[in-house]
């Protein structure tokens, strides 16, 4: 039997109540709690203390390795400090025996006390003694102020180095806030949790090698006291950097390491030819290294070092990258000022004039050891542009080009459900998420991100990457944080025009937009689900906000698929893009106005246009395409197309042949796989005058209705287009 909790009312302490087994869960410890479901073991505290911090609720669950606890309190605090005064303590009765350990409250004999404000762990196996955080493998996130925290404690923990903390299948858990006298649960009640021994799915490993050569890999790494130039650590650094193979690196704590020294090591470890790595250093400890030239860098910001990376073709833009190492520990005011100053820098960079100006759409990446402890506002400022000292640093401003905040890359460890980036078993602080990578997702897509902690990686993975299990911990107390970004390529643009026969309104040079008017056009392109081929990141396009509300000649008729095919292999798409067809024949991007854009190198391509129930068409020869949009007018008879009679003559220009209901590249009225029978089947198959509505393949006239007989039915165009006289005739699509 499973239940969410066991809350035991101790009327008779000598009587042991029955326990219910709780529910395990694959919790990702990242400081976010969206993966905690309501069905997990929980306790809600109903008392409100007159002083101190109010303990509101807790949830408990486990996987094969950890006990997880979610704690919610009544005000924003820094759990691991006294920034907001508190005295929250966690007690664990790991052997489910109130007569052993510390008698902290009725029904509890705690083997461990964790006092968070002083970061003290005390074990009570016999004589009490202080223990290290590492003996519990305890992790608490976030490391900044919040009202909800998640904790992990290893199920194999031995606080005294000898005895198992969790010596029984059930443990008892208690929180107390001694300043205000709050307890959770209250005196007279015990919260017990029985470990779920069922199979919890293992974490899905994150692959280290980069997926596509065109992705830009960025690594941020605090190398702990010039570790990268320390002779004894050269092997560890070489193995890790070789395995990561980054394109841009932001190093910190390179106080005594010169740019030349870092370059020499990178040139030896990761040779790239030519003049080798491009490396610059600020006036303290930050070093930026890139495979490409560094056009400019700025040293005016405290503990932050922006640089403009000159990305080569085929990238459409350069990259504004900032390496950061904000002040540590209790320097909250200093860190906030540093964050305010960076927001001011970004506002200057996005506006013409000033210290720096970058073109609109230049990707912005900010990464490094941000020392995110203390107030959460500092990270919030970097993300949202909410400056705290406006008198000094000017007005608030959006951080991304579309007016939205920057986005934080997850940075989960490759082979563990943990997102901490710093660990020092000899420190007074437990492991924490101190390193972050923020990026402008309006102009760059995150493909993957991860923290490389070799200690949790399987032996086979380490061997394949040329790593050793102890490499990351030996190199630094910070683990390298890496992200792969898809940055827009220069690409090519096509201004395409075409008319579909199905919705064409004779003599008007327009098509009707009945599907749009009836709200039937899907927000996401339909071609992937229909099995049309995709290539070069095509597929999955979404229509822009408000585009389907446009009326008149620019109203949307339907989705189409545009394909580029190379002269050497014209039978297969080299790149695909789903786009929108307007009533006047213009084929536009999902924003409703722009020419169709492909992120492929400029060159000569055949251009093909396909529709879900019309025969496709392709240019007879390759067309020279580049970043300046080229117009291809398939409504003009002078535009040569592949094959014979690829388009149907019309009064306003050629049309794409309608009726390819079966979508096999041929129009058939009779015989196997004919296009007529599906129309009859769609309306029910028995009553030929019936009508079916919706967004359907059988709707040849594209008016939102499938009809077999009567005016504007969907059967007659098929017969007409195969010739109208011999029903066994066939018309074939003229694509190779």
Task: Provide an overview of this structure.
- It contains 11 helices and 42 strands.
- The two termini are 62 Å apart.
- The protein folds into 4 domains: 6-194, Immunoglobulin-like; 217-486, Deoxyribonuclease I, Chain A (4-Layer Sandwich), CATH 3.60.10.10; 492-633, no CATH class; 666-732.
- With 736 residues, it is α+β, with helices and mostly antiparallel strands.
- Helix 4 (332-350) packs parallel to helix 5.
- The strands form 9 sheets. Strands 28, 31, 32, 33, 34, 35, 36, 37 and 38 form a 9-stranded mixed β-sheet that branches. Strands 1, 5, 8, 9, 10, 13, 14 and 15 form an 8-stranded antiparallel β-sheet that branches.
Descriptive tags:
736 residues, alpha+beta, Deoxyribonuclease I, Chain A, 4 domains, eight-stranded antiparallel sheet, 11 helices
Mean of pLDDT: 94
Low-confidence segments, given as residue ranges, are 1-20
Number of domains: 4
How many strands in all? 42
Which descriptor suits the 3D outline?
A: globular
The rounded distance between the terminal residues' Cα atoms is 62 Å
CATH homologous superfamily descriptor of the largest domain: Endonuclease/exonuclease/phosphatase
What is the tally of helical segments?
11
Largest sheet: 9 strands, mixed
- Which CATH first-tier class of the largest domain would you pick? Alpha Beta
Return Rg in Å.
32 Å
């Amino acid at each position: 039997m499973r239940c969410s909790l066991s809350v035991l009312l101790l009327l008779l302490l000598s009587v042991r109540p029955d326990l219910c087994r709780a529910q395990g869960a694959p919790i990702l410890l990242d400081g976010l709690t969206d993966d905690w479901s309501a069905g997990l073991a929980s306790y809600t505290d109903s008392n409100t203390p007159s002083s101190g911090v109010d303990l509101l609720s807790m949830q408990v669950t486990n996987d094969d390795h950890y006990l997880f606890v979610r704690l919610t309190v009544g005000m924003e605090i820094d759990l691991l400090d006294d920034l907001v005064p508190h005295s929250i303590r966690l007690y664990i009765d790991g052997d489910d025996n109130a007569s052993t350990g510390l008698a902290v409250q009725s029904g509890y004999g705690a083997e461990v006390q964790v006092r968070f404000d002083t970061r003290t762990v005390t074990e009570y196996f016999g004589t009490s003694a202080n223990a290290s955080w590492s003996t519990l493998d305890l992790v608490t996130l976030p490391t900044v102020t919040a009202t909800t925290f998640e904790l992990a404690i290893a199920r194999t923990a031995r606080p005294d180095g000898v005895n198992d903390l969790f010596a029984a299948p059930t443990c008892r858990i208690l929180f107390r806030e001694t300043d205000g006298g709050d307890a959770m649960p209250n005196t007279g009640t015990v919260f017990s949790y029985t470990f779920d021994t069922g199979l919890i799915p293992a974490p899905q490993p994150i692959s280290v090698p980069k997926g596509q050569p065109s992705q830009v890999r960025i690594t941020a790494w605090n190398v702990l006291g010039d570790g990268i130039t320390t002779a004894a650590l050269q092997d560890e650094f070489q193995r890790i950097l070789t395995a990561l193979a980054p394109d841009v690196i932001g190093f910190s704590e390179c106080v005594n390491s010169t740019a030349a020294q870092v370059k020499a090591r990178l040139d030896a470890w990761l040779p790239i030819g030519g003049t080798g790595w491009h490396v610059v250093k600020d006036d303290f400890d930050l070093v930026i290294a890139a495979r490409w030239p560094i056009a400019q860098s700025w040293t005016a910001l405290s503990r932050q070092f922006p640089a403009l990376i000159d990305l080569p073709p085929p990238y459409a833009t350069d990259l504004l990258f900032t390496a950061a190492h904000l002040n540590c520990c209790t320097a909250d005011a200093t860190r906030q000022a540093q964050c305010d100053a960076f927001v001011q820098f970004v506002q200057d960079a996005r506006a013409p004039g000033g210290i720096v100006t970058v073109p609109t759409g230049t990707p912005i990446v900010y990464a490094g050891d941000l020392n995110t402890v203390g107030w959460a506002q500092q990270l919030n400022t970097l993300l949202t542009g909410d400056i705290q000292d406006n008198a000094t640093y000017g007005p608030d401003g959006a951080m991304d080009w579309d007016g939205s905040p920057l986005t934080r890359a997850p940075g989960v460890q490759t082979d563990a459900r943990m997102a901490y980036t710093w660990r020092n078993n000899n420190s007074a602080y437990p492991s924490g998420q101190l390193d972050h990578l923020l990026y402008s997702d309006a102009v760059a897509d995150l493909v993957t991100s991860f923290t490389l902690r070799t200690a949790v990686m399987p032996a086979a993975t380490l061997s394949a990457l040329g790593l050793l299990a102890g490499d990351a911990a030996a190199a630094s107390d910070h683990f390298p944080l890496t992200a792969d970004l898809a940055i827009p390529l220069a690409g090519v643009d096509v201004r395409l025009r075409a008319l579909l026969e199905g919705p064409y309104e004779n003599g008007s040079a327009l098509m009707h937009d009945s599907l749009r008017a009836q709200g039937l056009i899907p927000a996401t392109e339909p071609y992937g689900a229909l099995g049309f081929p995709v290539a070069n990141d095509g597929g999955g396009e979404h229509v822009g906000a408000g585009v389907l509300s446009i009326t008149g000649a620019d109203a949307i008729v339907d989705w189409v698929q545009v394909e580029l095919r190379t002269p050497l292999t014209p039978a297969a798409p080299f790149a695909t893009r789903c786009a929108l067809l307007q009533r006047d024949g213009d084929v536009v991007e999902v924003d409703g106005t722009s020419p169709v854009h492909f992120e492929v190198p400029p060159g000569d391509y055949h251009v093909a246009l396909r529709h879900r129930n019309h025969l496709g068409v392709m240019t007879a020869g390759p067309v020279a395409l580049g970043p300046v949009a080229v117009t291809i007018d398939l409504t003009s008879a002078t535009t040569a197309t592949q094959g014979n009679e690829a388009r149907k003559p019309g009064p306003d220009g050629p049309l794409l042949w309608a009726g390819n209901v079966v979508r096999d590249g041929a129009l058939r009225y009779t015989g196997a796989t004919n296009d007529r029978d599906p129309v009859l089947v769609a309306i029910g198959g028995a009553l030929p005058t019936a009508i079916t509505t919706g967004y359907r393949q059988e709707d040849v006239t594209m008016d939102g209705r499938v009809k077999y007989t009567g005016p504007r039915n969907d059967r007659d165009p098929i017969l007409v287009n195969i010739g109208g006289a011999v029903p066994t005739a066939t018309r074939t699509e003229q694509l190779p």
